Amino acid sequence: MREPSSSELIRTVIADFQSGEGRTAIQDALQKRLSGAKPADIVQQSLANLREVSAIVDEKAPDDAADFKAWLRGIGQMVAEASLEGGFLGIGGVRVSEAEKATLADIERALSAPA
After folding, report:
1. Hey, is 91 helix, strand or coil?
2. Each residue of 82-112: pLDDT tens digit?
3. What is the CA radius of gyration of the chain?
4. Is the separation of the CB atoms in 9 and 64 below 8 Å?
5. Among candidates 72, 74, 76, 71, which has minimal Cα distance to 102?
6. With bands split at pLDDT 50, 70 and 90, how would you rate the model's confidence at 6?
7. d(Cα 111, Cα 22) in Å, to the nearest integer?
8. In terms of C-beta density within 10 A (0-12 exposed, 13-18 middle, 19 or more buried), how is residue 89 classed?
9. What span, in angstroms and rounded, lies between the C-alpha atoms of 53 and 71?
């Protein structure tokens, strides 16, 4: 998430996450939006949020939209690859589980949805 980018939009989002005030505002908004929700509901709400973000970026920043969406996909991929699934003591297992692959496909569809 901290890779340098030529996109002003991505640099601005990263700067917001790097500031204590920005992180607090984001955490508070997520807490309010997802409070009391079940995990399956959180997944569906998150995908709906990605569709909304996709449409907003397409409309408000069309020149940055492709890079921004690729950046979001990359974050999802990094999270999915963060640890091995299955195996024992780091032996065996898979880098990305079937459930994670399905979620990545859902993210792809959400970010590719027409505005």
Report:
1. strand
2. 877 776 766 667 878 888 999 999 999 999 9
3. 16
4. yes
5. 76
6. confident
7. 24
8. exposed
9. 13
SS3 97: coil
The answer to whether 48 touches 113, Cβ cutoff 8 Å, is no
**Cβ(110)–Cβ(69) under 8 Å?**
no
Q: Look up residue 72 and give its two tokens.
A: 């979001």
d(CA 74, CA 93): 22
Q: Helical H runs in the chain?
A: 8-18, 20-34, 39-60, 62-80, 98-112
Residue that is written with structure tokens 């907003």 in the block: 56
Nearest CA to 10 among 56, 71, 55? 71
Any idea where the domains of the chain sit in the sequence? Answer: 8-112
